[in-house]
């Protein structure tokens, strides 16, 4: 086991982790664009429905009743949107478990790295290969997982 191979594995693992993080961000941007396009389509459909409702009411009643109905419709939509945003992501214990996944995996991977390294005899030929592989995996995971913790842009 030499220092060069450990550094090589660490740098290669870091690059793969960084590539994974970048790919994750690109997929996230694509997903966000798709979700926005879908929401925009839904909003357009709702807008057309509201327009049709307002035209039908204007034909049946006086202009004053149409204004009252459309303002009531908009306040109902506003209250509906407020109620939808008030719903949390999930139960608090589910959010806590989700928040602990990355730290638990990181600690587990680090523990596995230490256990595997010290389980082999110092002169064992496979100790170098195993340590290189485990360093690669550890650095990849850490760069990918914690690279995703960058501050979110608003």
Walk me through what this model shows.
The protein has 154 residues and is an all-alpha fold. It has one domain (3-147). The protein has helices at 3-60, 63-86, 92-119, 125-147. Helix 1 packs parallel to helix 4 (125-147) and helix 3 packs antiparallel against helix 4 (125-147). The chain starts with a helix and ends in a 7-residue tail after the last helix.
What's the short version?
The chain is an all-alpha fold.
Layout of secondary structure:
Layout: H1 3-60, H2 63-86, H3 92-119, H4 125-147
Number of helices: 4
How many domains, as an integer?
1
N-end to C-end Cα span: 47 Å
Radius of gyration: 28 Å
Mean pLDDT: 76
Q: Which descriptor suits the 3D outline?
A: elongated
SSE-based structural type: mainly alpha
Q: Could you give the count of β-strands? A: 0
* Helix and strand pattern: HHHH
Q: Biggest β-sheet: count, sense, barrel?
A: none
Strand content: under 5%
State the low-pLDDT regions, or none. Answer: none
User: Which percent range fits the helix content?
Assistant: over 70%
What is the subunit organization of this protein? single chain
């Amino acid at each position: 086991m030499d220092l060069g191979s450990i550094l090589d594995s660490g740098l290669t693992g870091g690059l793969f982790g960084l590539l994974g993080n970048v790919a994750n961000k690109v997929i996230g941007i694509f997903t966000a664009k798709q979700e926005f396009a879908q929401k925009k389509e839904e909003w357009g459909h709702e807008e057309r429905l509201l327009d049709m409702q307002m035209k039908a009411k204007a034909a049946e009643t006086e202009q004053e009743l149409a204004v009252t109905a459309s303002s009531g419709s908009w306040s109902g939509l506003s209250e509906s949107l407020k109620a939808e945003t008030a719903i949390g992501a999930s139960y608090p214990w589910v959010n806590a478990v989700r928040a602990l996944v990355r730290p638990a995996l990181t600690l587990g991977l680090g523990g596995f790295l230490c256990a595997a390294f010290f389980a082999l005899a110092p002169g064992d030929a496979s100790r170098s290969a195993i340590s290189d592989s485990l360093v690669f995996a550890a650095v990849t995971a850490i760069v990918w997982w914690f690279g995703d913790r960058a501050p979110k842009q608003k």
